[in-house]
Amino acid sequence: MAAKILDGKQVSAGIRAACKQRVADLAARGVVPGLAVVLVGADPASAVYVRNKMRACADVGIRSFRFDFTDDVAADRVIDTIEELNRRPDVHGILVQLPLPPQLAVTRVLRTISADKDVDGFHLYNVGGLVLGDTVFPPCTPYGVMKLLEHEGISVEGKNVVVVGASNIVGKPMALMLMQRDATVCICHAKTRDLAQFTILAEILVVAAGIPNLILPQMVRTGAVVIDVGINRLPDGRLVGDVDFAGVREKASYLTPVPGGVGPMTVTMLLVNTISSAERSAPAHAVVAPARGAAAIAAAGIG
Ligand code: NAP
Fold first, then answer.
1. Is the C-beta atom of 142 inside 6 A of ligand 1?
2. How far is ligand 1, taken at its centre, from the CA of residue 43, in Å?
3. Backbone phi, psi, residue 207, to 5°
């Protein structure tokens, strides 16, 4: 039987509708959520990601501010900009689009972002929070995967879960979030010997390696839930994941498509994190417009 396709676009639409309501509630408290996006260089894929994120912001009522730098920008200029954004009260989230050119040390740049505005969840403080199960901003891609599973009613508790890929932005936080929900997690990476002997045991398989067709049907347990995080552009222009979609579809119980699976969820969780940040910084009660003239005098009980 063919796997059920987990439609990230559809699940995202529901979450984005809730985002619009939260933005409206914030407006009543006098706050418009704001996201600053920093883009360095002219990588076409990064430009597309940034454009999509800003479009998604506009769609739910988040204000976004874009800061573009050329490839050869001095590190201090980027750092100064981030420090300025840390101070701006109309900016609740700061996102630096990765990858960065070599003169910019990723760790230095990411640590400059205030932990309170780190909506990507990459700051040391937020990563530490994730390890302790007490994160402020869950990193968007694994957060999106968890929401997708939750929406479908797929429990991870006690399940054998294999995560293929151990990067700081996807694989590692994914494994931590799954552990937090009591899954038994195995993490594979480029030096894992005989990947298939691990993947075949997975009741839930999350793949984030960036290699087309890395996961073939014979590597997947019958009935497994397969989440394909990979995004790869083939020479013919097609966008594919890391999983042999057509083959694995016949073996799995659930499967995410690429595009239209984890990708839209990632952008949506960025919106959620930005709104959460604005909510934390907003006054607790609705802002009432100040009374003027006679009304103000009457309200103050004067005269
Ligand atoms: P990354 O930083 O390049 O990390 C790739 C990871 O995969 C590394 O841990 C690497 O192992 C591992 N790996 C490489 N070859 C492998 C193999 N043959 N077997 C097992 N593991 C292998 O990439 P990333 O940023 O995590 O992204 C991974 C993929 O997800 C990319 O296609 C990216 O475009 C996509 N992505 C999608 C979204 C989304 O929203 N859908 C978001 C982020 C990323 P080592 O650690 O040993 O090198």
1. no
2. 18
3. -120, 120
Q: Which residues pair with 94 in a beta bridge?
A: 36
Ligand 1 centroid – CA 171 distance (Å): 7
Nearest to 206 by CA among 179, 220, 227: 227
pTM for the full predicted model = 0.93
- Quick one: tokens of 278? 């604005």
Residues 6+ away with beta carbon under 8 Å from 183: 156, 157, 158, 159, 160, 161, 204
Our mutation pick for probing the ligand 1 site, out of 9, 106, 170, counting the most ligand atoms within 8 A of Cβ, is 170
Q: Which of 116, 117, 118, 120 is catalytic?
A: 120
- pLDDT for 157-211, tens place per residue? 999 999 999 999 999 999 999 999 999 999 999 999 999 999 999 999 999 999 9
Give backbone dihedrals phi and psi of 75, rounded to 5 degrees, phi first: -55, -40
